Amino acid sequence: MDRFSLFSTPVLVFALDDVEELDAELCARLVAEARSSPGVERSNAGGWHSVPDLSLRQDACYRRLMQIVVERVRAALVDIAAARGLTVDHRYRFGVQGWAMVMEDGDYAVVHDHAEAHFSVVHYADAGDADQGAHPSSGALTFVGPRAGGAAVPGLDLFPGHFSIEPRTGLMVVFPGWLPHFVHPYRGTRPRVSISCNVRLEPEVR
């Protein structure tokens, strides 16, 4: 018997090392900005969404984070290609657009995608202080299966429609921009600070 696993969707999760000071500085800056700026409304229901200009800011903390984003997207690209028996021969320019989300208790994000991006990234500078025992889905990043609805086998979840990642401070998640996702309501007393990016790859002209 041959069995094929078709149309798999890669999601890569990186636990970053030595970013505690970087994350602390990012949180201090972004929480202060959230207190003084109205932000914008996108997929957020409540919470503060920054103007998507973080990749243009010249402060060292933002430049360092964008460098890490590019490094991890490059690693994801090579890993995904290798899993398919492909070699990344092209040199790419990475176009990055970044923004921040500061969530308070009860804030969440509705289902959306970033189909214009090759990859999307979320980094948790501070995952907050929710009691995960009392609120196990607090602030969870949940991906929605892109398949059209179909008949489910009674009693067996053979083709799950959702997959969730529990946010942790210092975690970075890389996934295809077209993958629908949402964020469960955050339940905590400390602001939950995340930075998201859309990344497009353009071949360099040799």
Q: How many strands appear in the DSSP assignment? A: 11
CATH superfamily caption: q2cbj1_9rhob like domain
In terms of per-residue confidence, which ranges show pLDDT below 50 for 5 or more consecutive residues? none
Mean pLDDT: 96
Q: Could you estimate the helical fraction of the residues in percent?
A: 10-25%
CATH class: Mainly Beta
Helix tally equals 2
Dominant shape = globular
Order of helices and strands: EHEEHEEEEEEEE
CATH names the topology as: Jelly Rolls
Binned strand content: 25-35%
At a glance:
The protein is of the alpha+beta class. Helices cover 20% and strands 30% of the residues.
Q: Keyphrases for this structure?
A:
206 residues; alpha+beta; Jelly Rolls; six-stranded antiparallel beta sheet; 2 helices
Give an account of the 3D structure:
The longest helix has 24 residues, at 60-83. This protein has helices at 20-36, 60-83; strands at residues 12-15, 44-45, 48-49, 92-103, 108-112, 119-126, 141-144, 162-165, 171-176, 181-183, 192-203. The mean pLDDT is 96. It is of the alpha+beta class and 206 residues long. The protein has a six-stranded antiparallel beta sheet. It is 20% helix and 30% strand. The relative contact order is 0.26. It contains two helices and eleven strands, in the order βαββαββββββββ. It has one domain (13-145, 162-203): Jelly Rolls.
Fold topology:
Elements: E1 12-15, H1 20-36, E2 44-45, E3 48-49, H2 60-83, E4 92-103, E5 108-112, E6 119-126, E7 141-144, E8 162-165, E9 171-176, E10 181-183, E11 192-203
Antiparallel strand pairs: 1-9, 2-5, 3-4, 4-11, 5-10, 6-9, 6-11, 7-8, 7-10
Helix pairs in contact: 1-2
